[in-house]
Amino acid sequence: MTVEHLPSGAKIATLASADRVEFGPLSHYRPLMADGTTPMRTGIQVAEPGYVAAMHAHPYVEMLFILEGEADVWMEGEENAKRRLKAGDSVALPPGKAHSFATAGDRTLKLLGIHHSPERIVNYRDRASGKDGYPVLDQPAGTGGA
User: Fold this and answer.
1) Whole domain around residue 112: which residue ranges?
2) Quick one: pLDDT band at residue 135, thresholds 50, 70, 90?
3) Which of 17, 77, 115, 134 is 20 to 30 A distant from 28 in Cα terms?
């Protein structure tokens, strides 16, 4: 990931220069504005049909903005109250509240994740967090990260 710092103070992150972080066989993440120099962190997640994010929480607000495809989103304990989000929809997930999402339907999901923190901090229910809050994938259970 490369964030270009302009003399004006503006910062530019390009998808073409973003690292690819695997979230399991059905999803990957591309951190964009993620060098710790802004009060928020952003990234693009791409998830194929069948992907389900591991239940997790953050100590800050996380927003998901659906760019392509559809997702079902729910809070821990509210698995029977899933909400369907389509391209152009967004959700703000409260700090400290565990949540998950899944690709809905047969189309690839692409979303913009906005972490209201300069660092990505993730507390997974079924696995450890590794470098930069990414899921440790060599543990059994679940099919994905966040």
Assistant:
1) 3-125
2) confident
3) 77
